[in-house]
Structures are given as structure tokens and as C-alpha cells.
Amino acid sequence: MSTSSPNSSASKIPVPAIAAAAAALIGLAVVLALVVAPEDADQGISQRIFYFHVPIALTAYAAFGWGAWKALLLLWKREDRYDLESYVAIHQGTIFGVLTLATGSIWARASWGHWWVWDEDQLVLFLVLFLFYSAYFMLRFSIDEGPRRANISAVYALFGVALIPVSFLAIRLAEESIHPTTFTRDGPQMTGLMFFTFCVCWVALGTLAYALYRVELLGKRLDANLRELREALTG
Amino acid sequence: MIRARAVEKRYGRRRALLPLDFELERGGFLVVTGANGSGKTTLLRLVAGLAAPTGGELEVATDRRGLGYLGHEPLLYRDLTALENLDLYGRLYRVPERRERAGMLLERFGLWGVRAERVGSFSRGMVQRLAVCRALLHDPTLLVLDEPFTALDAEGAELLDRWLGELAGSATVLLTTHDPDRVAPLATARLALG
Amino acid sequence: MNYLADVTALARKDLRLELRARDTLPAMLLFVLSTLVVFHFALPSGTDEVAAQGLLWVALVFTALLGLARAWAPEQEGGALEGLVLAPSDRSAIWLGKSAAVFLFLAAIEVVALPAFALFFSPLGGSAVFGVLLANVGICSIGTLLAAMAAASRTRELILPLLFLPLAIPLVVGGVGAGLSADPGRYLAFLGLYDAVFAILCWASFEYVVSE
User: Fold this and answer.
1) Cβ atoms C147, C68 nearer than 8 A
2) How far apart are CA B125 and CA B129, in angstroms?
3) B18: number of CA atoms within 13 Å, CB side?
4) Is A162 part of the contact surface with chain C (CB cutoff 8 Å)?
5) Which of A20, A21, B137, C41 is most buried as measured by Cβ atoms within 10 A of its Cβ?
6) Can you say whether the dihedral through the CA atoms of B66, B130, B144, B31 is positive or negative?
7) Which one of C162, C167, C173 has the shortest CB-CB distance to A174?
8) Backbone phi, then psi, for C15, in 5-degree steps?
């Protein structure tokens, strides 16, 4: 069993470096979002949550997509390691998904006075995805370890990625949105500095997600290797 | 027909089959023995393609069409009759003249009288006999039988003995049993696990 | 075509089993009727048509779940699923055959449930019925595959609803929309899209759900 995935160039970057980069970027992002960026004319302070809410949501999508990609690789190449990589990616995605719900709820409260609104497409979508991916973990933990579990988890992960656009369409069809459009067809309705802050937050959160992904992956692989070692010594 | 090099199977932490080497030539008859938990069933499932090895190489020179498998479960539908079960498998395996073949097997194994009865009403021995018929239905070139005699009644076991005797040389057989003496005259090789 | 022959043989097997055992269909029928009656008592008088239509879909989804929980039971009793997987036929045929049978069962239930709904609550238009049919395809496709996943798990019947409901949400949206909206075409088209996407996904991935 290998301790690392030797393929992509990104996986060669050592974990501490990524963690440091993430920490630095997050620090920068927080400063920019809370201090530097100008206050929005309509929404005031609550708008600052948006610098985190939307990037967190985007990171969650990316994590689910990454998990589905690894799942596809598992079914295609039949290599063990993709199962763990897919699982960890989806785990991260779910964490960020919960954060999306939390920040979205705070934003809704600050903007419209309610802790939950059904009219916000994104929020409802994440609720559905939260239910879906929670079931992923229940499914995974109810099957004994082995290729069967890996296969089934992978297929379910692929279903998740198909569900995202389909669900979004459904929610759009179902409700009229009162979500203020941040990006119009002409481009972001934000000033240059706001857009810059948004991008920094996005990169920061993406890096944080990747750092957490690598750390968890490393931890789980270490666990597995330790187990093997213990067995080899005693068994 | 079968070539195995360092084939092993693990389910997470659990070692179901320790690394194993063996070869079985076409027409051979390999008898596998071993205590419970030594991996006999796992080995047969690997050969049948129901599981994939986690280590080593396993080559089986036949596809699903040429493989007949008998496991611990009969792989039958309880609410269908014997004939209906065999007819379904006959279709899926594209057995030529499947009705005649099914009829012949049912007769050979003493089940012709109950051919239109639900499998759920059979005794254990009869179910196993039908499972044997199912495994033999498509005239497989490789027979993988997991303790076939265990669930058979005395008469059924004799009928299977006779059939295996007739097969000797023309089909390849891989069989596990707790009673190796029974098939000793037919065996061309032995393998003891555990 | 061999593939179609396999699918037909498998679907007929399921129909034969249900006709013989006669346990799932009557149960589903009674369940859907009981649910509709419960809904009558659950809704205060003067509730509008919109709410009632929504409840139709709740009833259909949960009735489908009841049937799906038992979909693979015959294969599990004697281990026949492995027998099917061992056969040289395409594994996706196993899924397609089973889905087709489940579709027919669900449609049979709806032949009674929809008129009952019209009787108890409010009439259903053509687009609503068409919506039910389209949603059926989706329910049977994903339901059959998810039920096979659940069969591989230790928690069986417990986990199937958890797997099924999030995926069923878009179907409910499409179905209710088809019944109520002034422009049902969009919702029906959406249901068609859902069916296409997920049927293809199920067809391609079923092999991996039942094998190692």
C-alpha cells in the first residue's frame, strides 16, 4: 500500500507547505474581507459574509466534483487508492457544504431577518446535497470494507455529481429566487476591490480545502500502514 | 486452464486467503481441502470471478459462458419451479435446446417428478441437486464446486459421483470437500490450504 | 437481439414471482389508499388544490419505496443474484429487467391510486398523469439500483429511503409542476431530462454495484 498518490504534480508538494500557504491566504482573506473591502451600499455589514459564503459553496462543489472524478478513476483503473481519495474529497465537500448552509443562514438572517428562506436556490440546493452526501456516509459505514464498498461508494459519488445540476434546475423551476444576483451577464456587480477580495477568499478557501484533504489523506494512509505493520509483526 | 501466482485476498484488515501458487491444466481434477476458514470458499469465488484478488495474479482460461459454479447457496428462486429456474438460466446462458437439456438433467438427478413444483417446497437435498443441475446446464468447460456433497442426500451424491466420473478428462474440475476420499479416484491433483 | 431477450426473460421472471406470491402489490395498493385517507384527515378543510397535489406525490414516493424495499428479495433468498451476475449476459440487463418489472407494478398501483386521488381530492389533468408516468421511469431506474446498493449493506431497508429521497426531490418538483403549472411542458421536459440522465447513469454503473 503506497503512502502517496504519485501522479499529479500537486501531490508532490509537501503538506506543511500547503498548510502554510493556506494559513497565510486565509489570514489575508480575513483582513481583506473584514477590513479593507468597502461596505456595500444596500446590505451593509452582512454583505461581508458573502465573501466567505460563495467561495465556501464553490469549494464544496469543487470537492464533490473531485470526489466524483476519483470515483470514476476507481471504476475505470481499478486501483485501490482512488477509493480513499474519493472518500476524503467527499468528506471535505460535506464539511464545506455544512459551512455553506451555516454562512448562508447567517447571511439570510442579516439580509432578510430569517434564519432560513426557501427562496434562495443555492441554500436549498445545499440542503438537498447535504441530505444526499450524509446518506453517502451512512451507506459507506454500513458496508464491510472491501471492493464492494469501494464500488458502491464510487457509483453513489457519481450520482451526486449528476444530481447537482439536475437539482439546481429543479429548484429553479420550483421557486422564484430572491437571491440577489452577484454576477450578472455583464460581469460581477462588484467594484474592483470587492472583486479582488472575493477572488482572494476563493483561492484561500480552495487552498484550505486542499490542505485539509491532503492532511486527512495522509492521516488515513498512515493509519492503514501502521495496521499492516502491526499485523506483519504479530501475525 | 487456471494459473495462480501468489494470489491472495483481503477484505480490509481480514485475510481471507493467504498467498497461494498453483496450476490446473485442462481436463484436470483438483481437490482442495482445508479447515474451515482456510480460504477454500474464497479461492473458488476468485476463480469463478465473483471476487477479485487483492494481490498476485490469477489467470482463468475461460469466460463466464464456460464456467459452472456451485457455491454454498443454491442460486435459485424459491418461488419458481425447478423447470422455470432452469429455463431462466438456460436463456441467460444461451443453452441450445435448453428444454431438452434441462429435462435430461432433471431426469439424471431424479428431479423429473418434481419439475413443476416450487423450489421452496423442496428438501435440502433436492435443492442441492437442482443447484447441481443449474451448474451443469450449459455444459461448462470449467466446473467450480464448493463442497457439493455436503448438502446432498446419499442418492444425490452418488448421482453426482457418476456424472463427475463421466466428465473426467473432458472438463476441468475444481472442487472443495471435507471428504477427499470420495473423489480420490478422479483427482489428478490435490491442494491443502491452511 | 440477445440483450433484449435477457431483459425480457428477467422481467417476466419478476412478474411471474409477483403473480405467484402476491404479497408486494396488494400491500402497496393498501398503503397508497390508506395514505390518501390519512391525508384527508391531515388537511384542514379549505386547503387548496396545490397542497393536495403535493400530497399525491408524497403518497406515490413512499408507496414506491415500500415496493422497492422488496424488489431484490427473491434474489436474496436463494442467493440468485450471484447466479445472475455469473451468467454471461450483460449485468446491466439485470437492472433493466428488474426496473421494467418495478415500473409495471408501480403503474398498476397508479391505475387505482390516481382515480382514488381524483375521487378524494381533486381531478387530475392529462399533464399530471403524463408527469406521473415520466416520474415513474425515474423512480424505477434509480430505485432499483439504490435498492441493490441497500441489499449489499448491513442496514438494508433502513438505508433505502435515505438514499432514495434526496434523489427523488427533483422528480417531485417535476411532477407537481406538471400538474399545477400553466406551462407543464417545461416540467415534463425536465422530467424527461432527469430520466435520460439517471437512466443512462444507472445502466452504465449497475455492473459495479453488483460485482467486485
Assistant:
1) yes
2) 6
3) 8
4) yes
5) B137
6) negative
7) C173
8) -65, -40
Chain B residues within 8 angstroms (CB to CB) of chain A:
11-13, 15, 51-52
**What is the count of residue pairs from B and C with beta carbons less than 8 Å apart?**
74
Least confident segment among A1-15, A63-77, B46-60? A1-15
* CB contact A161 to C (< 8 Å): no
The Cα of C209 is separated from the nearest Cα of chain B by a number of Å equal to 13
Is 90 exceeded by the pLDDT of residue C21? no
Measure the CA–CA gap between B15 and C123, rounded to whole angstroms.
Answer: 61
Residues listed for chain A: 235
Q: What is the mean pLDDT of residues C18-35?
A: 92
Helices C2-21, C24-42: axis angle to 10 degrees equals 70
Name the residue with higher pLDDT: B87 or C212: B87
Say which residues have a Cβ less than 8 Å from residue C77's Cβ, sequence separation at least 6. B77, B78
3-state secondary structure of B151: coil
* Angle of helix C126-152 versus helix C49-69 axis, rounded to 10: 30
Subunit contact B79:C9, Cβ cutoff 8 A: no
* Cα dihedral C120, C126, C132, C133 sign: positive
For the stretch B111-168, pLDDT in tens is: 999 999 999 999 999 999 999 999 999 999 999 999 999 889 889 999 999 999 988 7
C-alpha to C-alpha distance for A8 and A2, rounded to whole angstroms: 15
Computed on alpha carbons and rounded to an integer, the radius of gyration of chain C in Å comes to 17
Interface of B with C (CB under 8 A): 48-52, 63-65, 67, 69, 71-80, 84, 88-89, 91-94, 118-119, 134
Q: Per the CB < 8 Å rule, is A166 touching C155?
A: no
Label residue A189 by pLDDT band (50, 70, 90).
Answer: low
Hey, what's the cell of C171?
A: 422528480
Give the three cell numbers for residue A78.
481499478
Minimum distance, in Å, between the CA of residue A100 and any CA atom of chain C: 18
The residue type at B25: E
The verdict on a CB contact (< 8 Å) between A75 and C208 is: yes
Residue A227 with chain B: CB contacts under 8 Å? 13
One DSSP character per residue, A179-203 reads PPPSEETTEESS-HHHHHHHHHHHH
Question: How confident is the model at residue C3, as a pLDDT?
Answer: 94
Residue C100 CB coordination number (10 Å): 19
Q: Would you say the ipTM is above 0.90? A: yes
Q: Are C208 and A151 in contact (CB under 8 A)?
A: yes
| Side chain identity, residue B87 | D
**pTM for this one?**
0.90
Question: What does A60-119 look like in DSSP terms, one character per residue?
Answer: HHHHHHHHHHHHHHHHHH--THHHHHHHHHHHHHHHHHHHHHHHHHHHHHHHHS-S--TT
If you count residue pairs, one on A and one on B, with CB atoms under 8 Å apart, how many are there?
13
